[in-house]
Amino acid sequence: MEQTSSFTIGQRVHSSTYLRRVGTVKYVGNVEGYSGTWVGVDWDNEGDGKHDGSINGVKYFLSRSQKSASMMRAHNLNAGISLLQALKLNINPSPPNKMRVTNSFTHSY
User: Fold this and answer.
1) Residue 65, Ramachandran bin (φ over 0: left; ψ between -120 and 50: alpha; else beta)
2) pLDDT, tens digit, 9 for 90 and up, residues 68-80
3) Least CB-packed of 27, 36, 45, 106 within 10 Å?
4) Cα gap 80→31, rounded to integer Å
5) What does the H/E/C string look like for the chain?
6) Contact, 76 vs 17, CB < 8 A?
């Protein structure tokens, strides 16, 4: 039984194995020479993909660059993340410097 994709064109997604790999669904359907349903993603970061939306000379969708697109199986993608999740991924704050004051001397630990 073939699994169908619940992803739609224009939907924001991220890789299920690498949360910082975020992109937009540009294609959902069959890919010539391969079985099953594929999801074409144009990744936000150039170089995160393997091609430009073309597979074996067939253009499935337009991508932002020559290496920003990938064809993925639906089980390797997750639906887009919230703004709060995105901010947490993109901001890596350093831990606060722990300080204590004793007898007018400051100690870092």
Assistant:
1) beta
2) 999 999 999 998 6
3) 106
4) 23
5) CCCCCCCCCCCEEEECCCCCCEEEEEEEEEECCEEEEEEEEEECCCCCCCECCEECCEECCCCCCCCCEEEECHHHEEECCCHHHHHHHHCCCCCCCCEEEECCEEEEC
6) yes
d(CA 102, CA 99): 10
pTM, two decimal places: 0.70
Single-letter code of the amino acid located at 5: S
Q: What angle do CA 38, 21, 32 make, to 5 degrees?
A: 20
